[in-house]
Specification:
The protein is α+β, with helices and mostly antiparallel strands. The chain is 19% helix and 33% strand. It has helices at 10-18, 66-69, 119-133, 182-195, 242-245, 299-310; strands spanning 32-34, 42-56, 77-82, 93-97, 115-116, 137-145, 153-169, 176-179, 197-203, 219-225, 229-240, 261-276. A hairpin with a 7-residue loop joins β1 (32-34) and β2 (42-56).
Length: 312
């Protein structure tokens, strides 16, 4: 448990949101189309893209990343920059934050990079970039691991972009959340302590068009508000539906109930993290359910809550 009262690292949370060089793209940069169903409020258009490669960013310990490390996040847009004059690797491709690169490799200061595409993965990519196909690639951070660049790692996903557009819900990197009352909190913590996971029955047979419930692999923030401080549990959904949940649920009689609900099972990623209420004003305007986690938090709240765990 971490009491972050008077913790200077909380200032980093605010700086993370205010500094523009590593912020997620603002909504004004996207084409907004209203949607009438519950759940995320907007649908966006983007180019279709296919995952070309996911790999670890090499050489991060050779660059000064300590100041920026706590501001990196999954989904941050990256730039791939061909470094033809690299004397150590003729196929070198540098990786930088997209906002640090203006598109001209000849006028780029390679001191401001995160690292490189690994040698084992760069030959074919370098050849395609040299043939003038650099603009068909997009890149983003897919994992930020560890508390600093000397003990952690960065992973990225590289995509190939097509000319076609698709519509998509703007839910990338958003958290769902559930606020626990006294009774639910006691059951939740007891279940984690005794069984290593927590499970819930939430409404709507799968698939259900009227709710926006988590899927396997999604993260959900469970929140317990006290008078002076709030406990946070970052959880990972490991099972959806009675068949998947049967392995985890102790009360087998509760499975396959004839109603409009099914099981959701979560395991703990991190927590509990205790934070003074005064340090989380960004939660005051969030509509957090106390019944089931079928709504997303805002991008601002999602980023700040996850950043609290990165800074512990």
């Amino acid at each position: 448990m971490l009491d972050v009262e008077n913790n200077s690292e909380l200032d980093d949370v605010d700086r993370f949101v205010l500094q523009g060089d590593v912020m997620p793209p603002q909504e004004s940069e996207l084409i907004k189309v209203t949607m009438g169903m519950p759940g995320p409020p907007h649908i966006y258009r983007r180019k279709n893209r296919i995952l070309y490669k996911e790999c670890q960013i090499a050489g991060i310990t050779f660059h000064d990343l300590e100041e920026v490390w706590n501001e990196l996040y999954e989904g941050a847009e990256l730039a791939l920059i061909r470094e033809k004059d690299n004397k150590h690797d003729k196929n070198a491709i540098a990786v930088a934050l997209a906002d640090d690169y203006d598109g001209d490799p000849d006028d780029f200061d390679f001191d401001y990079i995160l690292g490189y595409v690994p040698r084992s993965d760069n030959k074919h990519l370098a050849n395609m970039m040299d043939m003038g196909w650099a603009e068909v690639f997009e890149c983003e951070l897919s994992q930020v691991n560890g508390s600093n660049p000397y003990k952690g790692s960065l992973w990225m996903k590289i995509y190939i972009i097509s000319k076609d557009e698709e519509e998509y819900e703007n839910t990338d990197h958003l958290l769902r959340a559930l606020e626990l009352d006294d009774e639910a909190y006691e059951e939740f913590t007891t279940c984690i302590e005794n069984h290593g996971c927590a499970y819930f029955r939430w409404g709507g047979f799968q698939p259900c068009e009227y709710h926006n419930f988590p899927e396997k692999g999604d993260k959900v923030m469970f929140i317990r508000k006290g008078e002076n401080e709030t406990e946070l549990y970052l959880m990972y959904c490991i099972a959806v539906g009675d068949d998947d949940a049967a392995y985890f649920v102790e009360d087998k009689d509760s499975l396959y109930a004839v109603d409009d609900s099914c099981y959701y099972v979560f395991t703990l990623i991190q927590g509990p993290l205790k934070v003074k209420n005064e340090c989380m004003p960004f939660l005051e305007d969030e509509d957090i359910s106390t019944i089931q986690a079928d709504e997303f938090l805002s991008k601002d709240a999602s980023v700040k809550l996850q950043q609290l765990f990165y800074n512990r």
